[in-house]
Amino acid sequence: MRGRLYADIVRTFPNSQFVALDEVLGREAAELAADRALRGADAVYAVIARRYGCTLVSLDNEHHQRLHGIVPVMTPTAALAELIAAHPDQQ
User: Fold this and answer.
1) Cα–chain-centroid distance for residue 78?
2) How many CB atoms lie within 10 A of CB 60?
3) According to DSSP H, which parts of 1-91 are helical?
4) By the 8 A CB rule, do 56 and 67 touch?
5) What is the pLDDT tens value at each position of the chain, 91 positions in all?
6) Which helix (H) or strand (E) holds 21?
7) If DSSP codes are grouped into helix, strand and coil, which group holds residue 58?
8) Helix-helix angle 40-51:23-36, to 10 degrees
9) Residues 6+ positions from 75 with CB-CB distance below 8 Å
């Protein structure tokens, strides 16, 4: 029950976009998972970040190691510091 409530709340966040896992995205993720020894969901996160030109924000060391050169990966602390630096007037 809590999981569904949380999912409903997350859908209301501004600037959020939900991406359907279609056949093309699934195939890209499967290939990346095989090539980089990633778990399936981790590969999905990576191909979505790559497709949309985003940085993957993660505490998972495997993301930082195995996705080097595929998609930018930052820790939450580093990503937050970068956001603050980019918008010093909003502190």
Assistant:
1) 15
2) 16
3) 2-10, 23-36, 40-51, 61-66, 76-86
4) yes
5) 888 998 888 888 888 888 999 999 999 999 999 999 999 999 999 999 999 999 999 999 999 999 999 999 999 999 999 989 988 887 6
6) none
7) coil
8) 120
9) 57, 58, 59, 64
Query: Which residue type occupies 9?
Result: I
Q: Give backbone dihedrals phi and psi of 73, rounded to 5 degrees, phi first.
A: -130, 135
List the structure tokens of 57.
Answer: 């924000």
CA-closest candidate to residue 67, choices 41, 47, 40: 47
Compute and round to an integer the Cα radius of gyration of the chain.
15
| Residue-level length of the chain | 91
CB neighbours of 42 closer than 8 A, spacing ≥ 6?
Answer: 33, 60, 62, 63
Q: How far is 61 from 75, CA to CA, in rounded Å?
A: 9
The pTM (predicted TM-score) of the whole model is 0.80
Report which DSSP code applies to 55: P
